[in-house]
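Sanity check. The docking grid for magnesium ion depends on where the pocket ends up, so I'm generating a full predicted complex first rather than guessing from homology. Inputs follow.
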Amino acid sequence: MTPAQAIVAKELRSAYFSPIIYVVCAVFLVIFGVLSYIAVVNAGTQAIRLMQIQGLAAKINLNDLVFRPTFYSTAIILLLVLPILTMRSFAEEHKLKTFELLMTSPIGINHIVAGKFVAVFVIYLGMLALTGVVPVVLAMFNSFDWAPVFTGYLGLLLMGALFLAVGLLASAVTENQIIAAFLSFGILLSVWLMGALGSILGDTPVGNTIAYLSFIEHYDRLVRGLVDTKDLVYYASGILFMLFLTHRVVESDR
Amino acid sequence: MIDVQHITKRYGDRTAIERVTFSVNKGEVLAFLGPNGAGKTTTMRILTCFMPATEGTATVDGFDCSEQPQEVKARIGYLPETPPVYQELTVSEYLTFVGRLKGMKSAALRERMPLVIEQVSLGDVRHRLIANLSRGYRQRVGLAQALLHDPPVLILDEPTVGLDPKQIIEILELIKSLAGSHTVILSTHILPEATAVCQRVVIINEGRIVAVDTPEHLSARLRRSEKISLTVKTPPHNFADRLRGIPGIVSVFAPADGGVYLVECALGRDLRDELARFIVTNGWGLLELKTISMTLEDVFLRLTQHEDGMGERSGGETPQEARA
Ligand SMILES: Nc1ncnc2c1ncn2[C@@H]1O[C@H](COP(=O)(O)OP(=O)(O)OP(=O)(O)O)[C@@H](O)[C@H]1O
Ligand SMILES: [Mg+2]
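Predicted complex below; grid placement will be based on this.
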């Protein structure tokens, strides 16, 4: 086992014994479940209304009526929930002075940052996997197009990873977990709103640049089933840049 | 093995240590003594590459702390001021994690772990969560962590803090047994500890080194005047007065019940020979005659309370208030 793997294993073990992680997962899954339930009920009432107007059984489009709204609202839950997942990563090491152990061990800071990131990402993967129950159950009752569901999940995966990287950065700058959580929440919300600002400015160079920098436009395309290299590059470079900044902060923060 | 040249560390405009220079030979145990805030922890953090010095260079085993930190880190076992333990792990899980962090192979880990657990007496608690351990046990886990990968250099920041007396003795014995094969720097406020295990002591105060020497030399060097204690079998009634008659004797303290006489001689004069002859030729029966040197405690207090202590390492006496 390499040092970086040891860090991942230790983080996962700590998470396994941490009540916060269970609360975070539970809240996430419950809200996800409620939101998809609401979406399904909405789809049902719309179908009934269509039937009354047109007098024939309308085919319900689950992709448009259920998955898309659920993916959008999931992004909001992630905004609230993922900062909680990452807040302890570095803040707690500072607080407990175990940071001194990490920094005086013969391993590179990049291994430490990578280890921490992989650990929270694995937990996040677990959370996402559990939400997979919803499409599987829906598939039993109705048919829909799986492709946009998969790309939507790809979007969740990438955007979530970006959120986690931002959360790690916030956790590295303070030894207070609450501040770390609020800081990453604040950064993510501002970047999100930046996307809205970009769309207000419309199809101008400034508007397009601002919209490009926000994660939401890229997510939107993936949810609609469009896989564009541009969006993948955006997420990959965003994640790497955040991890790089975390590296710098950890390095100077002694 | 360890060479520190003129290191200075500033936090903002606050200078924590200033132009600290010392070196430690291979196999030597060196104690860092100094009051709170003297800069002991700061010096150790620089040596362990936890943070860079503002100025100056530090090398461990020939590797520069700022240029080849990985090489330095691999050679050092470090016990920080606060034991760096994870509450949610058990002792053996924690030590396994530290071993991996230090790059130990599984086989090496299997071999070292029981040994180290034995050395710091953690056998009873190895499967308990660190969160449930007492302060002293956590300190021992911290020590185990520093010893685990059997590094040639050990840097221990107040290793005996929070331990019970029996453990203190055991740990000091352990450190003593490491001397020779390991190079050790430890910091402490407790002087008998330093005398017990160290070949040399560095006394640091307000970020500056005030003295570096062996415990014996330090107290000898700081003897303000030569003091001699005398036990005489049958002293005459005017013994004290007759002693005062000897040139070079400053004062004589005579006990009421005729026990031990304390004779203070002028600076730099060794009158033991003369005193002995004086008593013996008079046939009073010399039972004991010895010089009294200051304890390390006295040295420490004197050096750290007076700025003008021994900054220049003059090897002479400390200028101090006159005494009658
Ligand atoms: N992070 C920091 N920021 C600012 N000043 C600091 C910092 N760490 C230490 N200092 C200052 O540096 C000086 C030396 O501190 P250091 O911790 O090295 O002392 P010490 O000798 O280990 O004391 P103690 O015996 O209490 O452990 C102190 O004046 C302290 O206030
Ligand atoms: Mg200290």
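Relevant for the grid: The mean pLDDT of chain B is 84.
Also worth noting: Chain B has eleven helices and 14 strands.
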